[in-house]
Amino acid sequence: MYKVTGLTKHMSSEGKTILDHISMEFGEGEMIGIVGPSGSGKSTLLRCLALRTRWNEGTYTSQGESLISESGRASMKNKSQFAYLEQNPQLNPNKTAHKNVLIGQAGQTPWWRRLTGAVRSDDYMGAMDELERFGLLDKAKVPAGKLSGGEKQRIAICMALVHGASVITADEPVVGLDPHSADRVLQTLKSICQEQGKTVIAALPIELAERWCTRIWGVAEGKLVLDVAGRRLTSSEKKLI
């Protein structure tokens, strides 16, 4: 179980509060959709939960153990539990899909492995297994620059799994995708929650969050205003966001 208490994040240049004393708990196997208007703090919340940005205030624990220091920063060890998927995954366009999965993202793998490309044999096979699981084995030797948007998102998910992430946060992972590709990505995310007990937290449009997620968080003006599980949002709840 992960527990967040009083998460506060300020914009360093202006001192403006982006996230205002947010508290929540979440656990294994949940697929959580974050909904809210543009500028409400959804992206910053995802980055904070994935330990990709420093907290100004608040505590973050897993099974009772702290994930961040008093300064609001996280160690590389703790960061490795989390993956952050951007809207447009930053893959190396000149390396194959398989090589991208092996090397991973900054924050997931040590700098020396990303620099040298050194991998273990079990990592090699693990990457092939994940590519096969998500229907991408035929893309293993294809340069990432030639993959579609949906394929790149699924490659990014494979990267997170191969490098041991327990919690995956995704910032609008299906923006710009056609409906079929969007469904394929969201089905992939849901399957890793159901089959592997991973936790996925994704910023999504309300209709997709209602369709795919087991729980919905509503964010407005940097505050958590909704936490609804197992059902669609009511009309009055939608007005809050």
Please trace the helix and strand order, writing H or E for each element. EEEHEEHEHHHHEHEHEEH
In whole angstroms, the N-to-C terminal distance is 27 Å
Q: Walk across the major sheet and give the strand order.
A: 6-7-8-3-9-10
As an assembly, this protein is: single chain
Output the number of helix runs: 9
Round the Cα radius of gyration to an integer and report it.
Answer: 18 Å
What's the overall geometry? globular
Spans of at least 5 consecutive residues whose pLDDT stays below 50 are 105-116
Binned strand content? 15-25%
The whole-number mean of residue pLDDT values reads: 89
The residue fraction in helices comes out at 25-40%
Class derived from helix and strand content: alpha/beta
What is the number of E strands?
10
The major beta sheet can be summarized as: 6 strands, mixed
